């Protein structure tokens, strides 16, 4: 085994430094400690020594995975779904890791590397413990704990590298050790990903942090005993300089603050927007402090970063590492989101797919260890940058519908080579370019750049994503923009939609307009979205709204309305009362009224008359008050019908089977409110109706294990929802209650009843104001909103889930839908395990009111438009069997519409129908076997059989057997009057079709029987005739017109 380092390579950096900077030389002689570590001489001892030191890198990257992998699960537990807020779970950790490494190396130089290595593990473990318990507090404490966690790895990493640098001489053994140290980075991330996803999905996400605590404390104990005591010559004991001067306290404080402010600005900008003043103020302060830091370092006796010893090669190496590792952080975060959100994978499955990273990283490390002894480190760095680039290109062009083994697998193999080749190469370049006394500084610089670039890279990517994702409507475009770092990110899945006309604000600012009303750009920046002549794009088959209906509701001029938009508005005289366009939200209660209503006019008039306290929004003089209002109907107590334990059990079925599609409620908050209700601390009748709806649906979906008093529970909810005391005051809970009632009625009774209930839910949503984004932010700040879980993201889900259910119900049964004057409610942010956004997307494909869906090109006629919409339904994502059934329902509707228009049914249409119907049969049988009797499981298969009979085509007839087999399977499992009726009706139609064909065949046979022996037999006819010509027009006209 090699002795500890006693010298450096032939090129003496210390000598060069003394020639360039005498101040630096003095600081080197007097300020630092010269530690010597001798690894254990036994093979097992040396393996243990290397393993413990390399565990610093392993646990650092595992800590990064603790927030990347279960980020959406953690966000749901805190009731937040804003991507900017969720990104802080990772950015806070990387921020402190990259920032405090800067001073950790100097502290190790002065006070000893082993001391800070072991202390870093202890600090890391304690804050991991507290981070787990932050689940009982909120996201702010969790972000703070993540930041405190990062200080531990900041102390561990540079001192670990310094220990290895002092334990091994320059040569192949040191190269191999550094390569093994770098190899633990991808392996650590995979290890953290697997355990955090497993614990988050199967147990509870805080357990991942508590396990991390136990592991860190165990490694601290092992490191204390396994890492040998250094032969330490304390030159600083004889130094006349104080400790504060030797650690460069002023430079350390200035540098840390500069790094924090600069990083904070870039990561907070995508969350609150760059228009908020403190974001760019902190950015400016950070830049100024960087300049001050440089000035302090040039004057310090013991500078934290002696710029005189940094050569050009070292600076270029650090630049390469910064570029590569910042791209690594971006790709890991956004590819993980891509796989979970857009491909609808679970965290555990995504972690399993990432395991190849550890294997590839190990191979890269071993290869790098060999290459560094044969080729220059700069060449290895070039190869590493190539791997980062190639892997980035593969990830940034990933299509959604592609097998894992194509680009994803290949990219995950290539990317670790960039990591595991750049880290040891950069470390060796800097380690050999600096004197032995500054090994801690060399390690600090490399690790600072690695970890700080991960955090700052997320800020850069988040800023690009924020500006290109069309206000959150185009998630894929935002992800691609973040990975490409540019606004014109490609989208290979579909052609870029060309709009005929941009809105006025986008045209004035030369911004990209998506053509919707309001467009994504105006929604993002708060502009008033207006089109020339007020001809904003509308969904087909929808009448033109009033001229002022597309204007945003506001009180006078909107606060964030731009001067250009103000000047483009109609000019009013000074004597005209202030304009109140659209509607107004009564902030005393979530009640939304139109500005032209009798309720709002007294308030508007009071403002015009400059009253200090204008009249409140109230129905003044709505009647004479001769008769008292209708009294409340006694409805008893839900606890008398169902126990708390049964409610919890059936709610679990509701949330695992039904809520993943209709994501109306947060399970954790719902159970907390149920506990308060059963303890007598919550006296909200409408919530009791919501709980009854959850229990009823959960009981129904439990099939044969439903509750004995399910009918009574449903009647209880109906009584409460129709109670005059509840309907007098609209509320979000009332919207949820009626939406659940509509869903249960769709499960159990005639569609007409469900349609009426869904219309009621939509009208209540308008009364509350959920259709406008401005109201949502206000409602979420009202009293009891947080305790009910009604944050902005949840309110958006309630509105869009109710809307999509209503639209599909209306179109399925040919009823009119509720139309809003305008909808500015933000879109649903997809989360793993929820398919609500996919269901909403399917509803938007229909030519429905307020839909934002637009075809890439306007078809020439309605028949072709139905075909294009049918293709859009086929291409839409469907991660759940219920969505497969819904896609079939919509396909059959569009076919019925085409049949009504008497348009031709092409082979392409038939193939689309068969594809959707065959998938529906399989999905229906799958759901019925599980006991999940979704309402369209039977109806979709029945309609498929009917459509096939109507097509009367050989290809369609060949698929009839599968449709009827599916019906028979469903009846064999669920034998009821309605299932038998559906099967018997389908058989009756089949027999009628057969009878019709028999009649046609008998007619042809009768014609053929008229031939006599004297007539020329058919077999003696001249076969040389041109039969193709005879069978074409005009000869075929005598057979009659073809049936449409």
UniProtKB/TrEMBL annotation:
Q: Name one GO molecular function term.
A: DNA binding
Q: How does it sit in the membrane?
A: Multi-pass membrane protein
Q: Where is the composition biased (Polar residues)?
A: 545-576
Residues of the Zn(2)-C6 fungal-type domain: 502-531
Record key words, sorted: Glycoprotein, Membrane, Metal-binding, Nucleus, Transmembrane, Transmembrane helix
Membrane-spanning residues: 86-104, 116-135, 176-195, 207-227, 247-266, 278-296, 316-336, 348-372, 379-398, 404-430
Where does it sit, as one GO cellular component term?
Answer: membrane
The ranges of region (Disordered) come to 1-41, 540-585
Q: Which InterPro entries match?
A: MFS, MFS_dom, MFS_trans_sf, XnlR_reg_dom, Zn2-C6_fun-type_DNA-bd_sf, Zn2Cys6_DnaBD
Q: According to the UniProt entry, which residue ranges have a biased composition of type Basic and acidic residues?
A: 9-39
Q: Where is the Major facilitator superfamily (MFS) profile domain?
A: 49-498
SMART domains annotated for this entry?
A: GAL4
Q: What's the protein name?
A: Major facilitator superfamily (MFS) profile domain-containing protein
Q: Which organism is it from?
A: Fusarium duplospermum
- Organism taxonomic ancestry: Eukaryota, Fungi, Dikarya, Ascomycota, Pezizomycotina
């Amino acid at each position: 085994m090699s002795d500890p380092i006693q010298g450096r390579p032939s090129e003496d950096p210390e000598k060069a430094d003394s020639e360039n900077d005498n101040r630096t030389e003095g600081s080197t002689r007097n300020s630092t400690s010269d530690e010597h570590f001798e690894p254990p001489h036994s093979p097992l001892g040396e393996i243990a020594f290397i393993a413990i030191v390399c565990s610093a890198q392993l646990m650092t990257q595992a800590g990064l995975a603790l927030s990347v992998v279960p980020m959406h699960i953690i966000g749901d537990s805190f009731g937040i779904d804003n991507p900017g807020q969720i990104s802080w779970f990772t950015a806070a950790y990387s921020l402190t890791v990259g920032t405090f490494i800067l001073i950790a190396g100097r502290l190790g130089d002065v006070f000893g590397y082993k001391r800070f290595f072991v202390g870093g593990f202890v600090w890391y473990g304690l804050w991991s413990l507290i981070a787990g318990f932050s689940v009982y507090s909120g996201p702010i404490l969790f972000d703070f704990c993540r930041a405190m966690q990062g200080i531990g790895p900041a102390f561990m990493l540079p001192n670990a590298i310094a220990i290895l640098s002092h334990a091994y001489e320059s040569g192949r053994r040191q190269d191999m050790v550094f390569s093994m140290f770098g190899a633990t980075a991808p392996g650590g991330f995979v290890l953290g990903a697997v355990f955090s996803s497993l614990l988050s999905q199967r147990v509870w996400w805080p357990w991942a942090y508590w396990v991390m605590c136990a592991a860190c404390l165990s490694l601290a104990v092992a490191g204390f005993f396994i890492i040998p005591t250094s032969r330490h010559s304390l030159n600083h004991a004889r130094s006349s300089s104080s400790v504060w001067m030797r650690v460069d306290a002023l430079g350390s404080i200035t540098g840390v603050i500069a790094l924090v402010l600069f990083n904070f600005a870039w990561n907070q900008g995508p969350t609150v927007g760059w228009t908020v003043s403190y974001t760019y103020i902190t950015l400016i302060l950070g830049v100024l402090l960087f300049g001050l830091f440089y000035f302090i370092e040039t004057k310090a006796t013991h500078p934290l970063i002696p710029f005189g010893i940094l050569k050009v090669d070292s600076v270029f190496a650090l630049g390469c590492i910064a570029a590569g590792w910042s791209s690594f952080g971006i790709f890991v975060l956004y590819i993980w989101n891509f796989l979970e959100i857009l491909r609808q994978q679970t965290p555990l499955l995504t972690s399993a797919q990432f395991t190849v990273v550890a294997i590839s990283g190990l191979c890269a490390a071993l290869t790098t260890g060999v290459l560094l002894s044969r080729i220059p480190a700069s060449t290895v760095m070039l190869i590493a940058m190539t791997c980062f680039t190639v892997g980035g290109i593969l990830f940034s062009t990933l299509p959604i519908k592609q097998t894992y083994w194509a680009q994803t697998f290949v990219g995950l193999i290539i990317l670790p080579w960039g990591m595991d080749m750049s880290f040891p190469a950069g470390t060796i370049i800097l380690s050999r370019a600096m004197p032995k006394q500054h090994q801690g500084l060399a390690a600090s610089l490399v690790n600072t750049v690695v970890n700080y670039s991960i955090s700052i890279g997320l800020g850069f990517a988040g800023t690009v994503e924020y500006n290109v994702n069309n206000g959150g409507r185009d998630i894929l475009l935002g992800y691609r923009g973040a990975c490409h770092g540019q606004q014109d990110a490609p989208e290979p899945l579909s052609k870029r939609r060309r709009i005929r006309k941009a809105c006025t604000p986008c045209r004035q600012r030369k911004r990209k307009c998506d053509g919707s009303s309001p467009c994504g750009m105006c929604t993002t920046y708060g502009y008033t979205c207006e089109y020339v002549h007020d001809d904003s794009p509308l969904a087909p088959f929808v009448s033109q709204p009033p001229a002022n209906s597309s204007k945003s509701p506001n009180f006078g001029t909107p606060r964030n309305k731009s001067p250009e938009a103000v000047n483009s508005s109609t000019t009013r005289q000074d004597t005209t009362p202030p304009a109140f366009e659209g509607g107004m939200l009564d902030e005393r209660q979530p009640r939304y009224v139109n500005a032209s209503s009798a309720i709002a006019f007294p308030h508007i008039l009071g403002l015009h008359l400059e009253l200090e306290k204008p009249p409140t929004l109230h129905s003044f003089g709505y009647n004479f008050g001769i008769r008292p209002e209708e009294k409340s109907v006694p409805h008893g107590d839900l606890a008398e019908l169902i126990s708390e334990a049964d409610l919890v059990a059936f709610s679990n079925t509701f949330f695992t089977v039904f809520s993943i599609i209709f994501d109306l409620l947060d399970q954790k908050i719902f159970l907390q409110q149920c506990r308060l209700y059963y303890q007598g601390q919550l006296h909200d009748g409408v919530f009791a109706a919501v709980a009854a709806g959850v229990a009823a649906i959960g009981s129904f979906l439990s099939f044969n294990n439903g509750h004995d008093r399910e009918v009574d529970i449903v009647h209880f909810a109906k009584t409460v929802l129709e109670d005059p005391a509840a309907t007098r005051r609209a509320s979000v809970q009332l919207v949820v209650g009626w939406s659940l009632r509509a869903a249960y009625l769709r499960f159990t009774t005639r569609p007409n009843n469900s349609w009426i209930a869904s219309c009621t839910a939509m009208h209540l949503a308008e009364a509350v104001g959920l259709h406008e984004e401005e109201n949502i932010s206000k409602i979420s700040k009202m009293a009891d909103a947080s305790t009910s879980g009604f944050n902005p993201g949840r309110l958006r889900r309630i509105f869009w889930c109710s809307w999509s259910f209503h639209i599909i119900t209306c179109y399925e049964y040919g009823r009119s839908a509720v139309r809003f004057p305008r909808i500015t409610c933000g879109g649903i942010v997809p989360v793993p395990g929820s398919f609500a956004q996919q269901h909403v997307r399917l509803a938007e494909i229909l030519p429905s009111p307020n839909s934002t869906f637009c075809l890439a090109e306007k078809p020439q006629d309605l028949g072709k438009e139905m075909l294009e919409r049918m293709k859009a339904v086929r291409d839409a994502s469907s991660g759940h069997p219920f969505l497969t059934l819904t896609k079939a329902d919509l396909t059959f509707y569009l076919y019925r519409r085409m049949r009504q228009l008497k348009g031709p049914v092409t082979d392409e249409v038939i193939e689309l129908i068969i594809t959707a119907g065959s998938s529906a049969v399989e999905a229906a049988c799958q759901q019925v076997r599980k006991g999940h009797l979704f309402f369209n499981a039977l109806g979709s298969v029945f309609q498929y059989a009917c459509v096939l009979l109507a097509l009367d085509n050989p290809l369609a007839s060949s698929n009839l057997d599968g449709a009827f087999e599916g019906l028979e399977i469903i009846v064999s499992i669920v034998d009821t009057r309605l299932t038998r009726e559906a099967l018997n009706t389908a058989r009756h139609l089949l027999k009628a079709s057969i009878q019709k064909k028999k009649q046609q065949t008998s007619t042809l046979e009768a014609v053929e029987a008229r031939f006599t022996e004297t007539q020329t037999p058919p077999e003696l006819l001249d076969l040389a005739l041109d039969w193709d010509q005879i069978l074409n027009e005009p000869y075929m006209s005598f057979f009659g017109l073809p049936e449409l």
